[in-house]
Amino acid sequence: xxxxxxxxxxxxxxxxxxxxxxxxxxxxGATLFVRSLLQPQRFTALLQSQLxxxxxxxSVEKPAAPALWPHPAVQLQGFQLSxxxxxxxxxxxxxxxxxxxxxxxxxxxLAIERLEIESPRIDLDxxxxxxxxxxxxxxxxxxxxxxxxLQIVNGTLVRNDEPQLFDIHAETGTLLPGIPFQLDxxxxxxxxxSGILKLTALPRDENDALRFDRVHLIxxxxxxxxxDLAGNALWRGGSDVAANFTGxxxxxxxxxxxxxxxxxxxxxxxxxxxxxRDYAVAxxxxxxxxxxxxxxxxxxxxSNEHVDARIPPLQLVDWWHGVLTSQPGTPLTLPPLQGRAHxxxxxxxxLQMHDVQVDAGxxxxxxxxxxxxxxxxxxxxxxxAH
Length: 386
What we know:
- The chain has helices at residues 2-9, 11-38, 40-52, 102-106, 124-132, 254-257, 262-268, 313-325, 378-385, and strands at residues 56-59, 65-67, 73-83, 89-99, 114-118, 121-123, 149-159, 162-172, 181-189, 194-206, 209-221, 226-235, 241-251, 277-286, 295-301, 306-311, 338-348, 351-360.
- It is of the alpha+beta class.
């Protein structure tokens, strides 16, 4: 009697309560249905297969678990990536998520939209070891087919267990032939200098080579250099690399880099610039041929400065390694450089040099025609920028 009176007195209240109960039941049913569709072990096996194509092994401490918020995903605990054949991890993280697209989930398809990794620790030594395993001159290189994007939040880059970069945030798209690739990254150094990197490219499998068209690279370091380059590249394995890039380079002014010493710097070197210096850049990489090593031809043109040089990158690395490991008193050999340069100011820490002119070796020979991929056209560069 009381119940009927209460319902009659408040019909809308009871109707709302009934609707809420039905909605809750539907949500619970939908949640259980979605969890049954996820089946974490299937997506873990798919991700392991895709990473194996890039030479990586995925391992987790605990079985994967489904997650529904803020989007369908598979949660991984004790996430670890290692290079095949290596005992040391390249990347470790307490947790990661494999985001599953709704359309694939509802159609019971296996697909991973993005791998999200929180606070990872990335080992630079292991990363270099992985890169050293890339195809050599024997056999054509193969582009790793990675159908999932990657997102890193608050990562740390270490070398010899010493942190090198902090607060790493990075996001990439898929890495597949014929599909535009994009990388956006930002990080902070130990001296609190931050930097950003943006890279777009169109990778292609071309006969016995990998071709990267519409490459656009933007690099900017706080209180440091910034660069904007566009072009194309071709890689046939090992040091058989050809590339052609054009763009701009901006270097900071020596006085502006240390405001506290700006007055003394200006007094000691009246010609020192007080504004950043802008350069037009042309970089061409010529592949190694028989007895001729891999060469990078670099041209910089500023208002009153220019650089026209040829640099063998691999030999330069060997030379620098020899300088660092040489015994005290060993005569310092000249770096393997060839070309001409006139630079108004060179600044590296306490070292300050002004009106620098360099004449290294014989005259720089003209670049052979067709030795590198054609540079990006103005229309292509504009397309990449957007």
